[in-house]
Amino acid sequence: MRKIWNHIGPHPAPYNHREHVLAAFGALGAIGLIALLNVIMTGSLLTSLPLVAPMGASAVIVFCLPNSPLARPWNVVIGNVASALVGVVCARFIPQVEIAAAVAVCAAITGMALSRSLHPPGGAVALTAVLSGAPIKDLGFAFAVNPVFLSSLTLVLAAIGFHSIKTRLAKAA
Fold first, then answer.
1. pLDDT, tens digit, for every residue of 23-34?
2. Helix (H, G, I), strand (E, B) or coil at 94
3. How many CA atoms are closer than 13 Å to the CA of 43, on its beta-carbon side?
4. Which of 105, 97, 109 is nearest to 137 (CA)?
5. Which of 161, 78, 85, 84 minimizes the C-alpha distance to 119?
6. Which residue, 157, 108, 150, 113, is CA-closest to 128?
7. CA torsion, ordered 102, 105, 108, 109, to nearest 10 deg
8. If 0-12 CB within 10 Å is exposed, 13-18 middle and 19+ buried, where does residue 125 land?
9. Rounded Cα–Cα distance for residues 164 and 25 (Å)
10. pTM
11. Tell me: the pLDDT tens digits for 57-104?
């Protein structure tokens, strides 16, 4: 049993709670900024509400795992946008939602692999386009621009700024 636990349990490396708390506040600011920008641009948060889950997942990666290849700006922005485009295509042309959802995730992974932009929340972006119904269908391919592209870019820029400030403060201390 112990052998199994060693393979599936938490990693034995020391856990830096301070770093993760700081990252959580960075994510708070970034997601808050994304929501504010969406309200300013659209007059409503309703069009961006379905995107909260994928952007939340992206925030965990860019703030908590900034050195991961999955957190690279190319991966975050292109992975999410490519997945949004795929999701919109599937939502429009595959009438059965269950099939559209499965094909959207499959095509999103394929698209991210081909564009070398693997970013796991991209799968959620593709699903969002399929499962969110009328609000996203009404946006059509514009969904890939606003909210997906603009939110992804905002998130990446906020994370770069956050990590830059954090690094400078650490050097000064």
1. 999 999 999 998
2. coil
3. 0
4. 97
5. 78
6. 108
7. -110
8. buried
9. 15
10. 0.89
11. 999 999 999 999 999 999 999 999 999 999 999 999 999 999 999 999
